[in-house]
Amino acid sequence: MSSGRYRVRVENQEIGPHSLDALRDMAATQAFTAKALVTEEGIAAWRQIQDDAALREYLFPGPTKFKFKAKAFETVNAANDEPLKVEHFLQGNLSRQVPHEPEIVIEDRRPNRRRRDFILTVLVTNGGLILLMAVLPRHTLVLVLGFMVMIPLNFAIYWVLYHVMDRY
């Protein structure tokens, strides 16, 4: 294998002349295979790349083989006739475990005044409505409308104090 320039015949078409490095780049991109015909510039005889071992090895190198350094392994555990048991590992884990206890936070809780406030609000609201019904002319329509307002208002007060307000 000389360092001259080469021509390659791929699918009945000649390409080149190219240097060996250019042919190697083309072979890496699979522009041709080892069955392609090749000739040196100035020589009329064509031959397959796979027939020339040196040229084939240069253009189509085999897969890279990685070599690892040999490393001697040391045994960590001493040889022991006693079989390993799960309980042994669990005891070791328990001895290294840090006890975790949640921190107890004593809150300064306020007394729950929700019931007292509900009763007070209902009494004041209903008392105001009854006073308003007493001041207005005594008519059946005033009484019916007063009670129609009083019942949903009591439910609304209950809902707000016991279901809407999470921390009261």
Largest sheet at a glance?
4 strands, antiparallel
The gyration radius over C-alpha positions equals 49 Å
Helical residue percent band: 40-55%
**What is the overall number of helices?**
5
Terminal-residue CA separation? 95 Å
Unreliable residue runs: none
- Beta content comes to 5-15%
What overall form do the CA principal axes indicate? Answer: elongated
Structural class: alpha+beta
Plain-language structure description:
- The chain is an alpha+beta fold and 168 residues long.
- Among the domains are: 6-59, Dna Ligase, domain 1, CATH 3.30.1490; 114-164.
- It contains 5 helices and 4 strands, in the order ββαββαααα.
- The chain has helices spanning 20-28, 53-59, 86-96, 114-135, 140-164; strands spanning 6-10, 13-18, 37-40, 47-48.
- The protein has a 4-stranded antiparallel beta sheet with strand order 2-1-3-4.
- A hairpin with a 6-residue loop joins β3 (37-40) and β4.
- The two termini are 95 Å apart.
